[in-house]
Amino acid sequence: MSDQHIDPERPQFEAFKALPRDTTIHMLNLVRFKEKATYPADHPLAAAGLSGAEAYANYGKDSGPVFQRVGGGIVWRGTMEAMLIGPADETWNAMFVAEYPNSGAFLEMVTDPVYRQAVIHRQAAVETSRLIRTAPGLDPSRSETVFG
């Protein structure tokens, strides 16, 4: 198992695929960038000296059309200010929630050839990340809970 948490491990991906596929999903993204992007040696940007943030911007630019085509959209974006509960040294450079009409749309995106080329920028940019599938909205069966 990787300590870097950049791409999903096979068991995690299988668990994702086993969940219901016909409901809207939200994907919570927490991303920490590398100081300097690390592209494969044969990539055209390998010697460009890009920061992780710059490489991640390339990922967004190149993957964005595929994300939109499958019906995806950003429903929340924020900037980390302070860790109140959790490891004090755990910081995130990008935090957002992406919405997909269903998990099939997400799977279509990650298997698209254009996306698979764009993900090289993400791999070059990211030091570590978390990608958490959530069900949007409140769970009525837990209405007695005000705070999670």
Structural features, described:
The chain has 148 residues and is an alpha+beta fold. The chain has a single domain (24-136), classed as 2-Layer Sandwich (Alpha-Beta Plaits). The chain is built from 4 helices and 4 strands; from the N terminus they run αβαββααβ. It has a 4-stranded antiparallel beta sheet with strand order 2-3-1-4.
Please sum up the structure shown.
This protein has 148 residues and is of the alpha+beta class. It has one domain (24-136): Alpha-Beta Plaits (2-Layer Sandwich), CATH 3.30.70.100.
Helix/strand/pairing class, anyone? Answer: alpha+beta
Largest sheet: 4 strands, antiparallel
User: What is the CATH class designation?
Assistant: Alpha Beta
Tally of individual domains? 1
N-end to C-end Cα span? 29 Å
Element-level helix/strand string: HEHEEHHE
Q: Low-confidence parts, pLDDT < 50 over ≥5 residues? A: none
Morphology call: globular
